[in-house]
Amino acid sequence: MAPIIRLKDVIENMDAVGDEIKTFLNIRTGEFVTLSTEALGAAEEGEDIQNFPEWQQAVIQQAEAVLFTNDYRELPTRFDIHEYKIMENFCYTVEDEALSRRLLNGIQGRGAFRYFKDTVYQFGIERDWYQFREQAFKEIAIEWLQSSEIAYTDENEEG
């Protein structure tokens, strides 16, 4: 029987995903595995693991299991999460119209993420931002779990 995955764990692991890092869920054990694109590439290319340090050999073997078995599902990528769009959507929820415009203007171009975070802290709305972001991640995670037909629980919904 497949394990029931905690929604909270999926969200936490989605937060670790990056351009050079991918996270997978073992649907048989419920274990999360985070791998570098380098390790995945070495496994995919079938490189001789003896050419790698011992610690890296184990990582490449794990990457082989991820790539060449049906036991793993890749968590949503940065592309799927689209954090810029989450920031933009948050800007529209800010009731102070001037601050909303300031945030929207600030997320254009270079340094958008830094400017956004600085402004959020400057105006003391970081709690609102992190709650909004957490909810967006939750919705993405639920959609992914459901489309992957993975059973999950949201302990916050349990009595």
Structure in words:
The structure is a single chain. By secondary structure, this protein is mainly alpha-helical. The chain has two domains: 18-74, no CATH class; 79-140, no CATH class. It is built from eight helices and five strands, in the order βαββααβαααααβ. It has helices at 7-14, 37-45, 54-68, 78-81, 83-93, 97-106, 112-122, 126-147, and strands at residues 5-6, 21-26, 32-36, 72-74, 152-153. The strands form two sheets. The chain has a three-stranded antiparallel β-sheet with strand order 3-2-4, sandwiched between helices. The protein has a two-stranded parallel sheet with strand order 1-5. β2 (21-26) and β3 form a beta hairpin. The longest helix has 22 residues, at 126-147. It is globular, with a radius of gyration of 19 Å. The model has no long low-confidence stretch (mean pLDDT 93).
Helix content: 55-70%
Beta-strand segment tally: 5
Count of all domains: 2
- What is the chain-wise order of helices and strands? EHEEHHEHHHHHE
The largest β sheet comes out as: 3 strands, antiparallel
